[in-house]
From TrEMBL:
The gene is mcpB_4. The chain crosses the membrane at residues 20-43, 49-69. Keywords: Membrane, Transducer, Transmembrane, Transmembrane helix. It comes from Clostridium puniceum. PANTHER family: LYSOZYME-LIKE PROTEIN-RELATED (PTHR32089:SF112), METHYL-ACCEPTING CHEMOTAXIS PROTEIN MCPB (PTHR32089). Residues 142-385 form the Methyl-accepting transducer domain. PROSITE patterns: CHEMOTAXIS_TRANSDUC_2. SUPFAM superfamilies: Methyl-accepting chemotaxis protein (MCP) signaling domain (SSF58104), Periplasmic binding protein-like I (SSF53822). This is Methyl-accepting chemotaxis protein McpB. It holds the Pfam family MCPsignal. It comes from the Bacteria.
């Protein structure tokens, strides 16, 4: 873009207008005089009188015009001088004194208003520059943080997308494994049901075995009782056999006696002769019978002895059997206890199997739900993976747009700097000087924080603008705002703020004057080598402050009255409210 040529106005040339106009009027009078003289020589009578009267009247009018022009040019001198200063950018000039001349009065008012408007424009421009600079700085910082955050977010979402893909693969594998686990759990459930059936069958068998053992035990008790009865019977039999033996022995004794009797009878028959032959035969038969009975009794005794021996053996065997049965009863008791334990353990196992069946049923149900949930997770993971890919694309576009916005903000900041540089050509009365010190200066500016106060907000804007200008002068301004909630608390906090500035060793302190309670802290700062300045109002008592910058209340009042007069068009009732307190807000 081509730069436009600078248009300059040299006010010195305007001063030559007066000389040019004077010369033109003299030339006009001279020409008119020669014209009248020439015409007067050629005229007669009344014509000469008329021409002479016109000449005198013309000269009178020219004198009046010359006088008015001289007065006008005298009034224009202040306007021209002010224009010269204004063209140099110096706004720190007094208003033009308004004369009674209506035309010049309008021009002077217009010029004064132009200067005032220009001052307001420069002031508002500086405030706007400060506000825009803060907004741009905040926006730039936010945009930088947002860009970095979005870059990190894009990277994070890219990682999330990558992780989502890996997670999708893992979820798929997990679903397959859950399906396998689900099938295994189904098989376990079936096996547990079979175990439950087997346990129920085993429990039934153990019950039947227990009942059979009880029946067998009763049979064993009956056999044991029978064996005991048999033993008693054998004992009685032995006793009877002993008695039979006694009888046979008695019979043998009788047989021996009969044999002796038959022998005696044979002897007596032999003595009797023929008469005794019959007795001899009887005696022989008795002897034979006795011997035969003895032999049979011997056989019977042999049999009885054999029976007795066998009975003894049987008795011993029965006794042993009874002992064995007693031992068997003990063993059977133990076996019965074992069966009872088996039955109890089997009952516990059955109970636990039932619990396991219940748990396996729950696990199977949970497995089904888990399998269904895994299917949903897989679908959701697929959706998340697709969404993250879309989100990455959107964030990348947003990051590109944010970078463009950041570049635009940088361009806007450069434009603001150009505007700020343009305002530096105007002199409004106060300009910072170069910092000739080698070190950077650190100044503290203490302000009351009154919400909604146009006055203090205007002061704050001015301080913020000055802070921007002083950065280039190796000077940092720390703005300390003391909140105003109530007067007593505010006064204490204000003093604390001054004391803290002393502790922080600032190179200078600027604060609002007026409140005499701040004087001890101000004098303390000065005694420690920290200069203090007050603004807007000075202390009502002597202090060691370096200087005070404050407006002229009378001039401000006159200007305010003039503005009010113009606002009400010179008529109306006006109320002026003042403040005589030490600490004026």
């Amino acid at each position: 873009m081509k730069r436009s040529k600078n248009l300059s106005f040299n006010p010195l040339k305007a001063l030559n207008i007066k000389s040019i106009i004077y010369s033109s009027i003299i030339l006009l009078i001279t020409s008119l005089f020669f014209l009248i003289v020439f015409s007067f020589n050629n005229l007669y009578g009344n014509s000469k009188i008329i021409i002479l009267s016109c000449l005198i009247f013309s000269l009178f009018l020219l004198c009046l015009v010359l006088l008015a022009f001289n007065t006008l040019m005298s009034s224009m001198k202040s306007l021209i001088n002010s224009s010269i200063e204004l063209s140099k950018g110096n706004l720190n000039i007094s208003d033009i004194i308004i004369m009674e001349n209506n035309d010049f009065k309008i021009l002077a008012k217009a010029f004064n208003q132009l200067k005032t408007n220009l001052l307001f424009f420069i002031d508002n421009t500086k405030r706007n520059i400060t506000t825009l600079s803060q907004v741009i700085e905040t926006s730039s910082t936010s945009m930088d943080m947002t860009c970095r955050g979005n870059d990190q977010l894009a990277g994070s979402i890219q990682d999330i997308a990558s992780n989502a893909q890996q997670q999708l693969i893992l979820v798929n594998d997990t679903v397959s494994k859950i399906n396998s686990i689900h099938n295994i759990i189904n098989n376990i459930s079936k096996n547990i049901n079979d175990v439950e059936k087997m346990t129920l069958s085993s429990n039934s068998i153990s019950i039947e075995g227990k009942e059979s053992l009880n029946t067998y035990y009763e049979s064993v008790l009956m056999i044991s009782d029978s064996m005991s009865n048999t033993g008693e019977f054998i004992s009685m039999l032995k006793k009877s056999i002993s008695e039979i033996t006694n009888v046979t022995n008695f019979i043998i004794g009788i047989s021996d006696n009969l044999k002796l009797l038959s022998l005696n009878a044979s002897i007596e028959a032999a003595r009797s002769g023929e008469a005794g032959k019959g007795f001899s035969v009887v005696a022989d038969e008795i002897t034979k019978l006795s011997e035969s009975a003895k032999d049979e009794i011997g056989k019977i005794n042999s049999i009885i002895l054999n029976v007795l021996e066998n009975s003894t053996k049987v008795e011993k065997s029965i006794t042993k059997s009874i002992d064995d049965f007693e031992k068997g009863r003990e063993t059977f008791s133990k076996v019965q206890d074992v069966f009872n334990n088996i039955y109890d353990k089997n009952s516990e196992i059955l109970k636990q199997v039932n619990e396991v069946v219940s748990e396996v049923t729950n696990i199977n149900s949970i497995s089904n739900e888990t399998y269904l949930m895994s299917q949903k997770v897989y679908k959701f993971s697929s959706s998340v993976s697709e969404s993250t890919e879309s989100a990455v694309a959107v964030i990348e576009e947003e990051v590109a747009e944010l970078h463009e916005i950041n570049e635009t903000i940088s361009s806007l900041n450069a434009f603001i700097e150009k505007i700020e540089n343009s305002t530096t050509i105007f002199d409004i009365g106060v300009k910072p000087i170069n910092n000739s010190n080698l070190k950077n200066l650190n100044l503290a500016f203490i302000l009351p924080g009154i919400k909604g106060s146009f006055f203090w907000n205007t002061i704050l804007n001015g301080v913020q603008y000055a802070k921007r200008e002083l950065i280039a002068k190796k000077t940092n301004v720390e703005i300390i705002i003391v909140p105003f909630n109530n007067a007593e608390e505010f006064e204490n906090d204000y003093i604390k703020a001054i004391e803290q500035c002393i502790v922080n060793k600032y190179d200078g302190i600027c604060l609002h004057g007026g409140n005499a309670k701040n004087i001890p802290s101000v004098d303390k700062a000065v005694s420690k080598g920290i200069p203090v300045m007050t603004f807007n109002a000075d202390f009502t008592a002597p202090s060691k402050r370096l200087a005070c910058v404050r407006p002229n209340a009378y001039e401000a009042g006159a200007i305010a009255g003039e503005i009010m007069k113009n606002k009400v068009n010179g008529t109306g009732r006006i109320v002026i409210v003042g403040n005589k307190s030490e600490f004026m807000m």
